[in-house]
Amino acid sequence: MRIKLDKTICDGFGPCATHAPEVFSLDDWGYAATRNGRPISADHRDGVRRAILDCPVHAISELPASTQSSRANSSNDSAAHRRTWSRTWDSTAEGWERFAAVNDEFFSAHSHPDKAKAVGLPGAVGMGNLRFQYQNAMLDCCVPPDLQVARYQCRLTELDILGDRLTAWAVPEPMDDATAAIVVRMGVRNQRDEECAPGRAILTPSGARPSEAADQGTRPPEPDAATARQLGIEHWLHRTSDPIHSWPIGANDVMRWRIAIAWAARDINAEWTHSPAVPRLFNPFAWNPHYRPAEFPWMPAVGETPGTRVLNGGIDVHFYTPMEIGDTVTCSARLLDCRIRSGSLGEMLILTDEQRWTNPAGALINKIIRSTIYY
Ligand code: SF4
Questions:
Q1: How far apart are CA 169 and CA 86, in angstroms?
Q2: Which of 53, 76, 99 is where one domain is finished?
Q3: Is pLDDT above 80 for 352?
């Protein structure tokens, strides 16, 4: 028996590592890892079969007996080897600084190798937010005009190290006839061929107006109220933070944002860089002293000691009404969940929150579900 785990769809924290701990481990972000294609010994087969059956997203499959292990090993992300769309960036200090400047994202781990090492990282690491931007810039360049991105999900499974070369890739799957939606499997691979940002996008016909009502099936699981009580933040599970208002979105801000993202790209096209459209992951709250997403009231203070160090876990964004130049955007946020897990970085606290952004007419722009990891 040989198996294959598709890391681009694994949802994390599932039963596979419980059923077959000798075969599956959970990485620092809680996602499953295994060596694809290796033979499973008879002792572990029952556990692996339970894992296959219990995996809620069918990320684990049994390979046909005829599959050669070498082939299976090389297809850790088979979709990545069938790339339809791709764009490549170099991880340079200049590119990171430009993005930090437009997104007001200054953490010492992103710019000081010594400070990064002091918090247990191998060296200066790039912003997770920037990888989200790479994938979305690639989508902007490649998705045909008769389709729109209705949802984008990505989690961060490897670090982006200074000097890495990152290729955002995507493979659209066949259209679902019932919904006319297309799921796009995506990732960001580095020059070592490690997948560091598996994710997916959902495309719908451009004329379709995505609605929140249609997303109800994607509600997150029940929160871990016991952990929230233990941390004294339980009341935030039922409460929305005070709204925060952005300044009007300026054309200058949008242009700087686009140029910062395109700065270290090897093959992004000039049309993308100069488009006046507001990118779907544009942050209109950057440099707003009232918007501190690393300091929402349920979040512990960030520091350098164990338990206060922070990593970006990933995002899941539903897009509804596009942002436009001149819009002021209002954000309200709430805590969705908090969990404590163990990983190679030790005990981790994972906070999941939701931000809802609305435009001046009260229309929902997007709903952002975000994971923050304290280690
Ligand atoms: S059960 Fe499936 S989704 Fe959950 S961690 Fe394992 S592989 Fe991932």
A1: 4
A2: 76
A3: yes
